[in-house]
Specification:
By secondary structure, this protein is mainly β. The protein is 8% helix and 51% strand. The protein is elongated. It starts with a helix and ends with a strand.
Length: 238
């Protein structure tokens, strides 16, 4: 989390500092684009998610092998004033993670095999973030901004209600998850449209793990909480 905040802060400072080098006025593309009360767009991008795991007792940590996923969605923007906007960005987030369990978790358990030490967690979130966007003044044809907000999601791949648990090879997570969402980006005003690359940090608020029936399960017994965290990199077109 600290690394994500540091990266966002660094990028914002660098872009704001760079903006001072380009204050010479140029012809503005779409000068009235930001005057609209309501506007719409779409985005697509990539994500890289892992889990923050808190343990009940000191033990070897479960390692998360991260993979890149895909984001796609729509943007609804409500203008409050020249510097503040409210954003609703419903979308689909497809992600994958592999949990790598230490062999010590299975001490005293007979008939284990290599597949017991790995759990593949596939997630398909229907993601509903509500964001507040704070922008700087437009400088020629670009404008930096930061965003803060919260999101709720529905994980279509959660298996929460599956009666099978890890003893049957099924790793289960909660269907509903809430997130904090913080990010940074830059609007580029092109001739026909506005192009916006952004980077966002997402941090789950609630515990997502569904425990196994056995309270001493090697897969869930020592986990106090398991929460998604990660980065979205999106390209938005409006």
């Amino acid at each position: 989390m600290k690394n994500i905040f540091a990266l966002i802060t660094l990028l914002f400072v660098v872009s704001t500092s760079s903006a001072q080098l380009f204050t010479k006025k140029k012809v503005q593309n779409n000068p009235n684009m930001d005057k609209q009360i309501l506007s719409w767009g779409y985005y697509f991008g990539v994500n890289n998610l892992d889990y923050k795991i808190d343990y009940k007792t000191n033990a070897e940590e479960i390692q998360t092998e991260k993979t890149f996923g895909f984001n796609v969605g729509l943007v609804g923007d409500l203008r409050v004033n020249d510097y503040i906007n409210l954003r609703l960005e419903p979308g689909l987030v497809i992600a994958g993670r592999n949990l790598m369990y230490p062999e010590s978790y299975f001490d005293g358990i007979d008939d284990t095999n290599k597949s017991d030490f790995i759990r593949e967690v596939k997630s398909t979130y229907v993601y509903f973030p509500l964001l507040v966007r704070f922008s700087t003044q437009r400088i020629n044809n670009f404008k930096p901004f930061i965003t803060f907000g919260v999101a709720t999601s529905i994980n279509l791949s959660s298996n929460e209600k599956n009666p099978e648990d890890n003893s049957g090879g099924e790793f289960r997570t909660t269907t509903s998850t809430q997130f904090f969402d913080i990010g940074f980006g830059i609007d580029f005003y092109l001739y026909w449209f506005k192009f916006t690359p952004s980077i966002r940090g997402v941090f789950a608020i609630n515990d997502e793990l569904v425990r196994d029936v056995d309270p001493n399960s090697p897969w869930t017994g020592n986990i106090n909480s398991m929460k998604t965290r990660g980065v979205f990199i999106n390209l938005t077109f409006r």
